[in-house]
């Protein structure tokens, strides 16, 4: 049995800043609708919370462990969610929300982990139930940008009651062949989010994600090679009237490929390793779901590690 207890106290304050002004393109009515009327005068907000959890791990057999945990969570709105009011880094216009209240939740998860001489793996289910859930939402306000062009306004808001639950499974199975080990591996996860009060899907939840690949390592563990494919499923489950300005519809899925490798030098007084990799191997143009900026293209990385004995 394991357990924990925690107390948090957050104090957030802002002071009037010279030349600060709400964007003049927002009308007085829109400023009132967004709750920004007192933002320029400064705020002082304090939040406190008691949280904790309790869990258990049970050895069912020599090869199978079962575990479960339940706890209470707390998240206070951060500085950006309360105060940041300006154009986003990629697209859209973000406004702060001084009236946000902390998010609280009851979180449960249960898992089974197993291992044999041939493979290891685990399965996990979790269910998180939140009150005053903090989520970025389209406000329904659009700032004119010119003839036929508009800038959508987004704001973090408390989404009443929300539930996020999901399932995750992973497995890997090493095989001894030739000069080393070949280890196929995979991970699959499914997420579902719901706005409980309105019986609507909770946006910004990507449902299906899969990672599969294999790793090669020689018996002496002096070098390795790794290949990985990341698969994100199309997101059709969106709330009624949800607007995605860039995609104008369901969030498309995508597949990316990555390769990496490295070599380890082991000496009497030090260890040295060099690693290199290529992500988005085929230079695919795509965007992470619910992110307007496209992901970077093909990327090369190289790194070294030194260990002095």
In short:
The chain is mainly β. The chain contains two helices and 18 strands.
Give an account of the 3D structure.
The chain is mainly β. It folds into two domains: 1-159, no CATH class; 168-309. The protein starts with a strand and ends with a strand. The strands form two sheets. Strands 1, 2, 3, 6, 7, 10, 11, 12, 13, 14, 15, 16, 17 and 18 form a 14-stranded antiparallel sheet that branches. Strands 4-5-9-8 form a four-stranded mixed sheet. It is 4% helix and 60% strand. The protein contains two helices and 18 strands.
Rg (C-alpha, Å): 24 Å
Q: Number of DSSP strands? A: 18
Helix count?
2
**What structural category arises from helix and sheet content?**
mainly beta
SSE order in H/E notation?
A: EHEEHEEEEEEEEEEEEEEE
User: Into which percentage range does the β-strand content fall?
Assistant: over 45%
Mean pLDDT: 88
Low-confidence stretches: none
Fraction of helical residues: under 10%
The end-to-end span amounts to 38 Å
Q: How many domains, in number, for the residues? A: 2
The largest sheet is: 14 strands, antiparallel
**What is the 3D shape?**
globular
Characteristics of this structure?
about 300 residues; mainly beta; 2 domains; 14-stranded antiparallel β-sheet; four-stranded mixed β-sheet; 2 helices
Topology summary:
Layout: E1 2-14, H1 28-34, E2 43-61, E3 64-75, H2 79-83, E4 86-87, E5 93-95, E6 103-115, E7 120-131, E8 134-146, E9 149-158, E10 161-172, E11 175-177, E12 180-195, E13 200-201, E14 208-218, E15 223-232, E16 254-266, E17 270-279, E18 299-308
Parallel strand pairs: 5-9
Antiparallel strand pairs: 1-2, 2-3, 3-6, 4-5, 6-7, 7-10, 8-9, 10-12, 11-12, 12-13, 12-14, 14-15, 15-16, 16-17, 17-18
